[in-house]
Design a protein that fits this description.
It is a single chain. This protein has three domains: 14-149, Resolvase, N-terminal catalytic domain (Rossmann fold), CATH 3.40.50.1390; 179-274 and 310-334, Putative Large Serine Recombinase, Chain B, Domain 2 (Hect, E3 ligase catalytic domain fold, Alpha-Beta Complex), CATH 3.90.1750; 345-436 and 499-569, no CATH class. It is built from 19 helices and 17 strands. The protein has helices at residues 30-45, 71-79, 95-98, 103-113, 132-167, 190-194, 209-220, 225-234, 240-243, 258-265, 321-334, 380-383, 401-413, 420-433, 445-464, 469-488, 504-514, 517-523, 526-535; strands at residues 14-22, 50-59, 89-92, 117-120, 125-126, 179-186, 198-204, 275-276, 279-285, 295-301, 308-309, 356-358, 366-370, 373-378, 396-399, 538-543, 548-553. Strands 2-1-3-4-5 form a five-stranded mixed sheet, sandwiched between helices. Strands 12-16-17 form a three-stranded mixed sheet. A three-stranded antiparallel sheet has the order 13-14-15. The protein is flat. The protein starts with 13 loop residues before the first strand and ends in a 16-residue tail after the last strand. The relative contact order is 0.07. It comes from Catellatospora bangladeshensis. One of its GO terms (molecular function) is DNA strand exchange activity.
């Protein structure tokens, strides 16, 4: 809910903003939770002639999230800066839903700074920031809120561990390849059963269960995981991501990956037992330099000894315990023994990180530092079966230092004194052709296309953070196709909606600020050059067959971000 506007106010009247919060972890209906929290707040301020003129209520956000990162709470904090906000008091119906841990201590100084008083039912009126008793009461509520959340987490996890270990209950998630879900009847919890929730279990999938059994059989017969992936792909057997595309839109399903075969060979669910706690959610600081921003959840894999495996067989097994253990032992014996740890060198700053693509498979090439030289490699055949009829070299490799010079000369040539005026004129024409809305408008196909651009940016960030290039390439390709369709159907903008674009003089002024680009690029640090390349939306496509690099810069959408080089711009 957004703040309601206030029309007129009296110097002596007391006007309030209400704040409340409910989340899924509270297991309450948002509407009923809002009503009773608001009722408590209203009962507190009505006897003193108070009127609630603005309402802020967060739904679905955990209490552990700081106010700055909650949508409605952040709007309330932003409203404090407006001298015409229309209220000088904030009332909260239940403090331990609003404050968690030390959040009260971080919020009350902000309210006091803007002359806004905080009212809570527990003290019967406004909080006095200088009153130690009030401060102690609110700190206790913050501690109670944190303790309550911790207790809920412990109870839930303990219950789920017991249900998985002792009862073998299916606790949700995607069924593994080879199984599908079946209905086991109403939920044993009467309240959940009344809400229509039902229990589910695993049952063999007639189409994929035989494939799982074949993988185990072929592996124990002496075939390696790559040979198995090759055979399955060549026979046209769909990979897990291709078989269930609706739930795997982000994955590349054109071939069986070695990793998919390995996951199947190491999944104890195929013995008929339930498995839980393969992953955990850790809370890590959003910014180590600003602890007030709180934590964010990060999914991480647990070691195998932390997995919870049911004691009894609870669904039809696809392989026996003997077969599974034999495959696991064989897989372990084939693994390379870990080498002795050696001190790592300082990580090499790859200048073209995430900017180079393989011309054959269109995947991003990965950096590799060897003998003090930086390379970029594409190892599609080592990750995916080649039987998908893609003619891909076994190893595509490009040396970094052989590309830096030509790329920098190509970029700087556009701003060479002999071509500078021509380049500026070209940019001015391109920018003037772009039409952007001057005022907010209704959602159009163009807005949808912008959403896809954001999605693609997130995919690229995931790649930078270590996601599989093959997987991310599939995501990006699909998103780009959908974006292009949206752009093609975008209605033409009206002349009245256009805004003035940058003139040639504006661009010339920016170019002058950049100074001697050739010298700046030559002397820039690798990190600065990478930032510049990314701001120019540089894309390099390497062809191993012709030993050439195709370079492209998207000037049409360039935002003219200035990149720091040698202390300047």
């Amino acid at each position: 809910m957004n703040a309601n506007p206030l029309f007129g106010s009296s110097r002596h009247a007391q006007y309030f903003a209400f704040y409340g919060r409910v989340s899924t972890e509270d297991n309450q209906d948002p509407e009923s939770s809002y009503n009773w929290q608001y009722s408590l707040a209203e009962n507190l301020v009505t006897p003193v002639g108070g009127e609630i003129v603005a309402r802020f209520f967060d739904v679905g956000d955990s209490r552990s999230i700081p106010w700055q990162r909650r949508p409605e709470a952040s709007q309330l904090l932003a409203a404090l800066r407006n001298p015409n906000r229309g209220f000088d008091n904030v009332v909260i119906g239940e403090p331990h839903r609003a404050f968690y841990g030390n959040q009260y201590g971080l919020t009350i100084p902000v309210l006091a700074h803007f002359g806004v008083r905080l009212w809570v039912p527990e003290v019967g009126g406004p909080i006095d920031p200088d009153n130690e008793a009030h401060d102690l009461v609110m700190s206790v509520f913050g501690g109670m809120s944190k303790g309550e959340r911790t207790r809920v987490k412990v109870r839930v996890r303990s219950a789920m561990a017991t249900q998985a270990l002792m009862q073998g209950r299916y606790l949700g998630g995607r069924p593994p390849y080879g199984y599908k879900l079946k209905d086991l009847g109403p939920h044993p919890n009467p309240q959940k059963a009344a809400d229509g929730k039902r229990l589910h279990g695993l049952t063999p999938d007639p189409q994929t269960a035989p494939v799982v059994q074949r993988i185990f059989r072929d592996f124990l017969s002496g075939n390696g995981i790559f040979a198995i992936a090759e055979a399955l792909t060549s026979e046209g057997i769909l990979s897990p991501s291709a078989y269930d595309q609706e739930r795997n839109r982000h994955r590349d399903g054109r071939a069986w990956a070695k990793s998919a075969v390995r996951v199947i060979l190491t999944n104890p669910r195929y013995t008929g037992r339930q498995v839980w706690n393969k992953q955990r959610t850790d809370e890590v600081l959003v910014d180590v330099d600003d602890v007030a921003l709180g934590h964010m959840p990060v999914m991480r894999w647990n070691p195998r000894d932390k997995w919870i495996i049911s004691q009894e067989v609870v669904h039809e097994p696809l392989v026996s315990d003997e077969v599974f253990n034999a495959a696991r032992e064989l897989l372990g014996s084939r693994a390379h023994k870990p080498a002795a740890h050696k001190p790592h060198r300082t990580r090499h700053p790859y200048i073209f990180k995430s900017l180079i693509y393989c011309s054959v498979c269109q995947r991003r090439m990965q950096g590799q530092h060897s003998h003090d030289v930086a390379y970029y490699r594409c190892r599609y055949p080592s990750d995916y079966a080649l039987a998908n009829r893609i003619d891909h070299p076994k190893n595509v490799i490009m040396r970094e230092d052989q590309v830096i010079g030509p790329i920098d000369r190509w970029i700087t040539s556009a701003f060479d004194p002999t071509r500078r005026d021509q380049t500026i004129e070209l940019l001015a024409r391109q920018l003037s052709a772009q039409v952007r809305p001057a005022i907010p408008r209704q959602r159009t196909d163009g807005d949808i296309a912008a959403e896809f651009d954001k999605k693609i940016a997130r995919y690229r960030q995931a790649l930078d953070e270590g996601a599989s290039p093959a997987v991310v390439a599939g995501w990006i390709a699909e998103a780009e196709q959908q974006r292009d369709k949206a752009l093609a159907s975008r209605p033409a903008a009206r002349e009245s909606d256009a805004i003035d674009s940058m003139t040639a003089e504006d661009i010339a002024s920016l170019v002058a600020e950049l100074g001697d680009i050739a010298v700046a690029l030559k002397e820039a640090e690798p990190e600065d050059k990478l930032d510049l390349y990314r701001s120019l939306r540089l894309k390099l496509t390497y062809s191993a067959e012709t030993q050439t690099v195709f370079a492209k810069i998207d000037l049409g959408e360039h935002r003219w971000d200035l990149v720091g080089v040698r202390g300047g711009t």
